[in-house]
Structure formats: structure tokens, C-alpha cells
Amino acid sequence: MLELSIAGLLTAFVGGIASFLSPCVLPLVPGYLSYIAGGTAPLQTADADSRSERWRALGLSGCFVLGFSIVFLALGASITAIGRLFLAYRYEMNIAAGIAIAFAGLVVMGVLRMPVWVHRYYRFDPAAKGGKPLPAVVLGMAFGFGWTPCIGPVLGGILALGATSDSVGRGTLLLGVYAIGLGIPFLLAAYFMAPFTRRLATLRQAGRYLQVITGAILVAMGIAVASGQLMHFAIWLLKIFPVLGRIG
């Protein structure tokens, strides 16, 4: 389906970025990355040892991203499988999915406020020391489960869209792209950990504007899904970004 491969995947990717920029994720990124790297933050210098440390941090962060990607892929496959049991209600499911996505967008933009308890997360402190691939994967999986209430509005919208997919593979792909959107900023932050930490306050300010943009995209996508205009939305995206025609 063209509209899913373009508009849906773009929405999932944007949703992942929005989740990274959320107030309950972004401030805690340095702490997670420091643990993953073994308690040290690689310096941003031209020194060979520093470059080696940054590549090491990047690899370990890749394990972390793999961990939460596994969780999101499993959620995507599960919700799509459940959604296929209700194919007779596809029209109603599309409306519900569109509303959920638009709602997520309004929350990301700050137009709607969620209760305080929604922003809580379940912290997981692994017994194993950081600096190794396996603990990084386990911590990533714990992140995927523990942060679900915090990133719930966005994740819920993507899951709702996945539930309307015509195959488990497409629904899983949506969550995979969501994980990529969330994972790429983590990898960039890991490689540039020192400047990322120093400029976190600035990033938080810039992130507010980016959240408004990503939230607006989610709202537009939600309206398109609920109104049955997803194909027209996809065609519009193709005209604006022709390179998207190579996707899918």
C-alpha cells in the first residue's frame, strides 16, 4: 500500500524523534549513555584514543537501541495480529487510529496536557556493570518497557496505525521505523556525547520547537487516517519530497 509505505512510515519515524525529544526522555539520555559506555563520556577531540572511545560508545549504544527495538517490534507484531481479528471493523479502526495519532500530536505540541502519572517511568538498574554489549541490550529492553507510559501517546498512535495494517509484516515495519526514529538520535548523542551533554539545555530549548513541528505532522497524519484521505496525503508528500517515492 503506497499510503502506508510513505505517509505511515514517515509518521512512525517522526514519532520516534518526538519521543526522544520528550521531557521525560531527553534529560535522562546522558545518564543512560554514560552507563552504557561504562561510566565514562568520550571527549570530543582529534586524539586517536578519544575516537576509539567514541566508536566504542557508538557500538554499545547500538546494542541499547537493538534492545528497545526488539520490544517495539514485538509490540508491533502483536497489535497487528490482534487487529487482523477485527478486519470487519476496518473502517472504525481507521477512525480510532486517526484520532489516536492526532491526539498524540496534540500532546507532543503541548496543546493537551497528560496527567502527571503518565510521565512516570519504571527504572531498571541491571546488576551487571555497563560497558558490555549484553547489559546494553538488556538495558535497552528495559527502556522499551519502562518508558512505555512516558512515550505512550506517540507509541499508542503508531500502534493504532499498525493495528489497521493488512499484514503483520507491515505493522511490524511501522514499529521498526519508529524505533529507528528514536534510535538515530541516541546513536548521534552517544558518538558526540561530550558536546551533547554540554549543550543539553540548548537542545531542550530547540527540542521544544521540534516537538511542535513533529506534533503538527502527527496531527495532520491523524486527520488523514480518520477521514480516509491518507492516499491524498501520501500524494501530497510525494510532490513535496519526491525522494520518498523510492520507499517501499
Automatic annotation (TrEMBL):
It is a multi-pass membrane protein. Keywords: Cytochrome c-type biogenesis, Membrane, Transmembrane, Transmembrane helix. Its main location: membrane. The chain crosses the membrane at residues 57-83, 95-116, 136-161, 173-193, 213-238. Residues 10-223 form the Cytochrome C biogenesis protein transmembrane domain. The keyword Ion transport does not apply. It is found in: Membrane. The keyword Transmembrane helix applies. This is Cytochrome c biogenesis CcdA family protein. It comes from Herminiimonas aquatilis.
